[in-house]
Design goal:
Elements (H helix, E strand, L loop, with lengths): L1 H14 L4 E9 L2 E10 L2 E3 L5 H18 L9 E6 L5 E6 L2 H17 L13
Protein name: DUF600 family protein
Length: 126
């Protein structure tokens, strides 16, 4: 994770002025979504990540998720990362069972409607 933090900080510091990044991550089998919010002096600033950085973030989150949740231990389907230009950071991993129950419900409905549909499984369920 340290390499990820260092790479992200270097990329951001080389591309614009910022003082805080809030990165909210949602993960499901076969799906990673994240929303970055950048701030300078407590004001949100617009910045679009280039596609290679977007891919790097998604790949790193996927690897971190697989590594940290082996055998279904330490499960998380959300993470919140706060990052600062000096590399200091805070990260919180969250398992939201209500959200997971909702996603599982949609998958069950899809399986009932389409016998060919197979709901994606977490890597620890395979």
């Amino acid at each position: 994770m340290n390499e990820f933090i260092e790479t992200l900080v270097e990329y951001l510091n080389n591309n614009f002025e910022w003082d805080t990044l809030h990165l909210k991550i949602s993960i499901q089998p076969k799906s990673i979504n994240y929303k970055p919010k950048f701030f300078l002096d407590n004001e949100r600033i617009p910045f679009r990540l280039k596609s290679e950085m977007k891919n790097y973030i998604m790949d790193t989150v996927q690897k971190k998720h697989i590594q940290s949740t082996k055998n279904g231990k330490n499960k998380w389907n959300f993470a919140n990362l706060t990052l600062y230009p000096d590399g200091s950071h805070e990260i919180e991993y969250i398992w939201n069972q209500d959200h997971q129950d909702e996603v599982d419900g949609y998958n069950r409905e899809a399986e009932e409607e389409d016998p060919n549909y197979k709901a994606p499984k977490w890597h620890w369920e395979e």
